[in-house]
Design a protein that fits this description.
single chain, alpha/beta, Rossmann fold, 3-stranded mixed β-sheet, 3-stranded parallel β-sheet, 5 helices, globular
Length: about 150
């Protein structure tokens, strides 16, 4: 797996990782960076992206359109947003509307995950099955065994 060099609190994955600057997302598969990315957001960072950093984040999402697979994983339960357990006066409806509207516009799934461990496990599973699907369909994949 590739972890973006700008990822400040990388998740502890049970897969080998390398640090490398990614153009899109925080996590990718080595050799598939132009096709596969997962964007991870901590709760407060996500709220900031839906409010004060909205334009910058939308430019990032625009870059995700060229990928075969992209998802936004938010490091909290959706109920934490619904209960407005964050540092902003913006309503939970507006925050959630932004998330799901972006998912519809840029064609990706929004996933809320309650813990860092659950998030790490989900990233590993998504990467595994995306890579496996490419192998099964006979699509070119990088040789990860060296």
């Amino acid at each position: 797996m590739v972890v973006d060099t700008r990822e400040q609190k990388p998740l502890k994955l049970n897969l080998p990782t390398v640090r490398k600057k990614l153009d899109v997302g925080d996590y990718s598969i080595l050799g598939c960076e132009s096709e596969f990315a997962i964007e991870r957001k901590a709760k407060e960072d996500f709220v900031k992206c839906a409010t004060v950093d909205r334009r910058r984040f939308q430019r990032e999402l625009e870059r995700s359109r060229v990928l075969d697979y992209f998802t936004l994983m938010i490091e909290c339960d959706e109920t934490e947003i619904e209960e407005e357990a964050y540092r902003s006066k913006v309503s939970h409806r507006a925050i959630l509307a932004s998330a799901y509207a972006w998912g519809a516009k840029y064609r990706f799934a929004v996933q809320f995950n309650g813990s860092r461990a659950a998030l790490a496990k989900k990233i590993e599973r998504i990467a595994y099955y995306w890579y496996r699907d490419r192998l099964l369909r006979g699509q070119p994949v990088p040789d990860l065994v060296r």
